[in-house]
Design a protein that fits this description.
Length: 139
Amino acid sequence: MESIEQVNYIKAPIGTIYKALTSEEGLRNIWTKKLKVKPEIGFINEFDFDEGYITKFKVLELVYNSKVVWECIASDEEWVGTKVSFELSERNNKSTVTLKHYKWRERTEFYRWCSYNWAMFLFSLKTYCENQKGMPSKP
């Protein structure tokens, strides 16, 4: 099994980052404008990137200001069955976000492209939390 792992450092309170990762408002400003999101275990978050399908993640774990875990149940076939986690920590007025997209069946060209896009997601999260201006996709 393959795993994408990215890290970024954000000059914002950990609570701001957690809220951005678990709310419609936050994810709308970071990832895509077309979505349905609730911070509830078992809820199916939906993200529409105008690619002909809806990406759906089941919320598996929410640890306030610490961790978010999703499982992909519908999307591109390479994503289905994979999991995404966001682990948060804070030290010296700086927050660390570690993103892991794991349980990939193999390392493919799409896997590599997604690694790049997850880095862009973390940059969008950073700009949103620090400057209230993320970079969501434009469907």
